[in-house]
Design brief:
Elements: H1 10-16, H2 30-47, H3 56-67, H4 82-91, H5 98-111, E1 115-120, E2 125-130, H6 132-139, H7 151-154, H8 158-165, E3 169-172, E4 185-192, E5 199-207, H9 214-234, E6 244-247, E7 255-258, E8 261-264, H10 267-278, H11 285-292, H12 300-314, E9 319-320, E10 325-326, E11 330-332, H13 333-342, H14 346-352, H15 364-384, H16 387-394, H17 403-412, H18 416-430, H19 432-440
Parallel strand pairs: 6-11
Antiparallel strand pairs: 1-2, 1-5, 3-4, 4-5, 6-7, 7-8, 9-10
Helix pairs in contact: 1-9, 5-9, 13-14, 13-15, 16-17, 17-18, 18-19
C-alpha cells in the first residue's frame, strides 16, 4: 500500500478508479487474477489470441511486443555501463529532478521494499534505487541502470509501456510479457519537457503485487507532474537571440519581446503580427485583407499604412514585403499551446493557455484560430477527465459558463458546489433566453460551450 501521504492525491486517483490503465479494480482477488492472467498469457504466446480478463492496454502491448519479435523467455540487455552510463546520466534532463524523485518516492521505495526507477524516452533505465534486497533480486532480470526496458526489447512493462503510449500505466504480474518479470508489479508515468511537450522518460515504482492499487498509479502520476513543474522552474525557455516572443493569449493587445525591448501593440497590429507568425512564408496584401477584414470596405492603401506603421515600430529589417513576412523567428504563446497539445502534454498545454487568442478581435482568421485552439484544448480536457485540469478551466473566465466542461467535472468530482453550478447552467439553457443564447453559438468567446455567454478577460500577466 502507498503511505498515507498519498491521500492528498485523491482527486486524480478518483478519476482513474474505473480507468483501464489501473491493473486491479476495487474488490478484485489478486490471487485469482494472477492465475487468470497466466492462462491468458499462455494462450496468447501459443495461439496468438487474447482472452479475458486481459485489459485492452495490455492486450495491445502484447501484440506490439510480439510484432517486435520479443519472446516470452527473453531478457533485457545492458546497453550502457561505467563511464558511458555516468556521462549519459549527467547530461540527461531528468538528472535535474532526481533529488525530487528521491524525496517523493525514495523513502516509500526503501520502506516498502520497492524500487524507484527512472528511464529515458527510449526505455533505457538510468537510475534504479531502493531496498537493497529488492535490488539484488531485480539484478537477476537485468532491471539495472543502463539496461534497455523498451517494449520493443522486453515487451510489456510499466516504464517501457508508459513511454510507448505516453500515459501513466500499471503492469501487474503476468501482464508482463516476459515470464521472468511476472513475479513483479510496477507503475510508471511519463515525464515531459514542459517547454516542448516532448517525452523525456518515465518515473517508475517496482515491487510486489501490493503495488497493484489505484493509489500507486495516482502517486507516480503526481510525482511525474511535480517533476514537470520543477523542470519548468529550473529550465526557462531557451531561444535564439533574435527570436521574437509574441504573447496574444488572454489579451486584446499583444505584447512582443524583441532583443532588448518589449512592445505592446495596437489591436490591429496584434492581429497582423499573429497572422504573419503563422505564415513564415509570408502573405500577400490581398491575403491579409481577407484575413483581417470581414464585411468591410477596406482599401489596400489602408492596410499598407498599417503595415508601414508596424514596420517602424518593430525596427529596421524585421518586416519584409512582397509578400509581407517576418524576417526573424517568432515564438507565439498560442503555438506553444498547440505544440504541447499535439505532443499529448495536456497539463503543460493547459498551463500555457492564459486565455482566448486576442479575445475581442473580429478578424475572420483570428476568430478561426481562437476557436480552433480553445475547442481543441477543451475537447482534450473533457476526454482526459483530469478533475484538477477541468476545474481550472471551469473556474477561469472563459470556462465559467461552459456547461460541457462543468458536466465533465461533475462526473469526476461531484461535490456540492460543482453540482450546484452545473444545475444553474442547465437551468439557464432550458429557459427561453438560454435557448436563444445557445442558438447564437457564442462565437469568439473562446469557451466553446455554446451558451453564448461572454467572459471577463483575465488581466495580462
Amino acid at each position: 500500500m502507498v503511505p498515507n501521504r498519498t491521500s492528498v492525491l485523491s482527486p486524480s486517483v478518483e478519476a482513474q478508479l474505473t480507468d483501464a490503465w489501473v491493473a486491479l479494480e476495487p474488490g478484485a482477488d489478486p490471487v485469482e487474477r494472477v492465475r487468470a492472467l497466466r492462462r491468458a498469457h499462455e494462450t496468447f504466446t501459443t495461439v496468438g489470441t487474447v482472452p479475458r480478463p486481459v485489459r485492452s492496454v495490455v492486450a495491445e502491448s502484447w501484440r506490439r511486443s510480439a510484432r517486435a519479435g520479443v519472446g516470452p523467455d527473453g531478457a533485457a540487455s545492458v546497453e550502457l555501463t561505467g563511464g558511458d552510463l555516468g556521462a549519459y546520466r549527467a547530461e540527461h534532463p531528468l538528472a535535474r529532478v532526481m533529488p525530487l524523485f528521491r524525496e517523493l518516492l525514495g523513502g516509500f521505495a526503501a520502506d516498502g521494499e520497492h524500487l524507484l526507477a527512472v528511464c529515458d524516452a527510449h526505455g533505457r533505465l538510468l537510475w534504479v534505487e531502493g531496498d537493497p534486497a529488492t535490488r539484488r533480486r531485480a539484478d537477476g532480470m537485468n532491471f539495472v541502470p543502463g539496461a534497455c526496458w523498451s517494449e520493443t526489447e522486453v515487451g510489456t512493462n510499466a516504464p517501457g509501456t508508459a513511454v510507448a503510449v505516453d500515459r501513466p500505466v500499471q503492469v501487474f504480474a503476468a501482464e508482463h510479457f516476459i515470464r521472468r518479470v511476472q513475479p513483479w508489479t510496477c507503475a510508471a508515468a511519463p515525464v515531459h519537457d514542459p517547454r516542448t511537450g516532448r517525452v523525456l522518460g518515465a518515473v517508475d515504482i517496482t515491487g510486489g503485487h501490493g503495488l497493484a492499487h489505484p493509489h500507486s498509479l495516482g502517486f507516480v502520476h503526481a510525482v511525474a507532474r511535480a517533476a514537470e513543474a520543477q523542470l519548468a522552474l529550473l529550465a526557462p525557455s531557451r531561444r535564439a537571440r533574435d527570436t521574437l516572443l509574441l504573447s496574444a493569449l488572454g489579451r486584446d493587445e499583444a505584447e512582443v519581446v524583441l532583443p532588448g525591448r518589449r512592445l505592446r501593440l495596437s489591436r490591429r497590429h496584434s492581429e497582423i503580427l499573429v497572422l504573419l507568425s503563422r505564415h513564415p512564408e509570408g502573405l500577400t496584401g490581398d491575403e491579409l485583407l481577407c484575413a483581417l477584414y470581414a464585411q468591410e470596405s477596406v482599401t489596400p492603401v489602408t492596410l499598407r499604412a498599417e503595415l508601414a506603421r508596424l514596420r517602424r515600430l518593430l525596427g529596421p529589417g524585421l518586416l519584409a514585403s512582397r509578400p509581407y513576412r517576418l524576417t526573424a523567428a517568432v515564438e507565439p504563446d498560442a503555438t506553444v499551446v498547440e505544440r504541447r497539445l499535439d505532443a499529448g502534454a495536456l497539463m503543460a498545454a493547459a498551463q500555457a493557455y492564459t486565455g482566448p487568442l486576442l479575445p475581442s478581435s473580429q478578424a475572420p482568421a483570428i476568430v478561426r484560430l481562437r476557436d480552433r485552439l480553445a475547442q481543441g484544448l477543451r475537447t482534450a480536457l473533457i476526454a482526459h477527465r483530469d478533475p484538477d485540469l477541468l476545474a481550472d478551466w471551469a473556474h477561469a473566465p472563459w470556462g465559467e459558463d461552459d456547461v460541457e466542461v462543468w458536466r465533465a467535472l461533475a462526473a469526476v468530482r461531484p461535490t456540492a458546489p460543482v453540482r450546484a453550478r452545473l444545475a444553474a447552467l442547465e437551468a439557464e439553457l432550458t429557459a427561453p433566453a438560454g435557448r436563444a443564447a445557445a442558438r447564437s453559438g457564442g462565437s469568439g468567446s473562446g469557451s466553446g460551450s455554446g451558451s453564448g455567454a461572454t467572459y471577463l478577460q483575465r488581466p495580462p500577466a
